[in-house]
Predict the 3D structure of the following.
Amino acid sequence: MIQTEDLSKAFGEFVAVDGVNLRVETGEVLALLGPNGAGKTTTVRLLTSVLRPTRGRAWVAGFDVIQHPQKVRANVGVLTEHHGLYARMSGEEYLLFFAELYGLKGENSRRRVHTLLEQFGLEEAARRRIGEYSKGMRQKLALVRALLHSPPVLLLDEPTSAMDPENARIVRETIHSLRKAQHSIVLCTHNLTEAEALADRIAIIRRGRILFNDTPEALKRHLLGAPLYEIRFAQPWNDPLPTLPPGVEVVGRGSDWIHFRIEEPHRTNPLLLGALTAAKMPLLTFSELPRSLEEAYLRAMTMEEPHAMA
Amino acid sequence: MPWREALQPVWIIARREIRDQFRDWRILTPIFFLTAFFPFLMNFFAQQMLNFVRQYGAELVGERMVPFLMLVVGFFPISISLVIALESFVGEKERGSIEPLLSTPLEDWQLYTGKLLSSMVLPLMAAFLGMGVYTLGLALNRVTLPPVEVVLQVFSLTFFHALVMVSGAVVASSQATSVRAANLLASFIVIPMALLIQGETAIMFWGRQNTILWWAVFGLLVLAILLVRVGLAHFQREELLGRELDTLDLAWGWRTFVRHFRGEARSVLSWIRTEIPRTLAEMRWTLLIAAVLALVGLGLGAHLAHRFPLQLDLNQTQVNQRLSQWTTLWPMGSPGTFTAILGQNLRALFLGLILGSFSFGVLGVLPMLATMGIVGFLIQALSNNGFAPSLFIVGAILPHGLFEVPALWLATTATLEIGLGMITPQRGKTFSEALLAGIARWFKIMLGAVIPLLVLAALIETWITPQIARYLLFR
């Protein structure tokens, strides 16, 4: 589990992270989104006890980042922004080196390394120099490094950024299975589709401050308003609309479609459908219009801070 | 944590680095040539030198040349350790591989020591191998080998040269923002090391190396310990990751200096009343160390007076006459004398500051040691020659010494504090900030206590001490 209270970090007069309050439960994935320089990497470094907060506190896997930095680092797996691999080592040597640093020994270490290499499709390249690896292979190797010691907390910075779709899928599946295995995961990414697919909660950070922190649905609702629904007709329909239930607003109409904004879909939709069928409208489909996280994120980026949701 | 368990990660780090070095042809090639060919070249050179100097009956020069060339054979490979050590941290930072390492449960000292060890092992192995090949070559050519003690001294010097260079280079590497910056800082290691080797060479050719070279080895050991201590004290994961640029920021330097100089004082009066006493209280342990050093200086002076006895073939009347002549030549009671005394004392203390800033405070104690040593020597020499030292102390030293000695003591303490600031962990302070804080503290003590005491001492030495001396000594 991860918890931060008023976590802040200043470099001289520049405040990189400003009063961040986060909570990531076990078995939860939090996606930390934000533009470059927003404070994502600094937050990750604070959570790995590599940087020391200038204000506030944080606990990772039950350990205080200031009081017990070694224990924090032993319980965290980090995929850093720069993978930082040693080009002259083979993939296997590299992982065995880090396994030893994390306290894995002998046969256990070797077995763990090979299991992960196999899981990520790197077994064949295990004895090749890392310098000969492709970008995607390097990224997978760095991710394997983060998973070596089976840490309860994972901090992953752009885990699929250099990967082809097939490998990215492997990584996404791994993240899913890690969540099921009760790991707490913080995912820093610019890939909003991925964030939406993987994260239980989304935190948007800008200029070191958390602007929003909620589930993807709640976030979209807050930033983009109530959900939009579309009705399509089997043939053009230009007659006036019947009386609609309260909480339904027509936001657009064409010859064979109508868009509604519905405040409380669970309660209102049955009433709306009832009203439309009673009016003998030739209904073809009734569906929610998909709204991307990207749209919400971009909206958030244009908002002034006072309007943001803590 | 049991020590074996604690040392395990050090070895893991060092082993990886050493393995990496064995795979880098840019490191291996020069080491190979310096180990396989260079010793034979030195063998040849030694042989030629011996033959040449023998023609002129100067075999002694040839004999002294043999251990010197052994030192050279050892030094060339260890110079590579400097290159390896200089990029140990900052190189990894540039390649982006430092962050995963910093994110492991390693403690700072384990990471630091691992890097330190790894930079030394390969070059040192090559140096010792080269020196062995050189010695073997000498033996095969039937050249008289130097005594075992000298060989041991040369091996020890080589080891400590490597240790000092690597310790210094790792400090530079952990503080620099780029490999380029670290390489530029290397001159701070190379130049003193070159001077040191010249000094050691002079001692070798002088021929009294039996004891003096062991002192050189001891000095190198102390320096290496101080450098490692500095490196560990200022090793900050945060700094390694955080700093990107190191431009000379004079405004920041000045602000930092002023902040530490002013302390918590709000006015000049509160600075004098509270800041100076508070700073002195903070320095209490260093004051104690400096007091012990002053006594050591006094004792050392007295010891030297025994070891190198000074025969004063003069009776009391002649001494009085000489001193009287001296006081005539040195015009007492004039503003010029006052200025000269004050200027000389300030110069000596500034010299102490400069020496101390470059030697972690160690050489900063020299002015005090020298002064106290001279006093100890004079007292003992007078006593050895049947004069009453108490009269000399009361008549010629005590009146102004009551103010001058405490001033010297305080200034020396402040200089030692600069060094302590550098070798002690300073949370949240960079190395340069710790240095600036130490210098600011020195100026604070100088302005708030030392200079007023020195002015008073110079006034007394100019106008009062001569009168007392005349009355007590020259009657």
About this structure: Residues 2-221 of chain A form a domain with the Rossmann fold fold (CATH 3.40.50.300). Confidence is low (pLDDT under 50) at residues 306-310 of chain A. Chain A touches chain B at residues 11, 45, 48, 50-52, 70-71, 73-74, 76, 78, 80-86, 88-89, 97-98, 100-103, 142, 145 (CB under 8 Å).
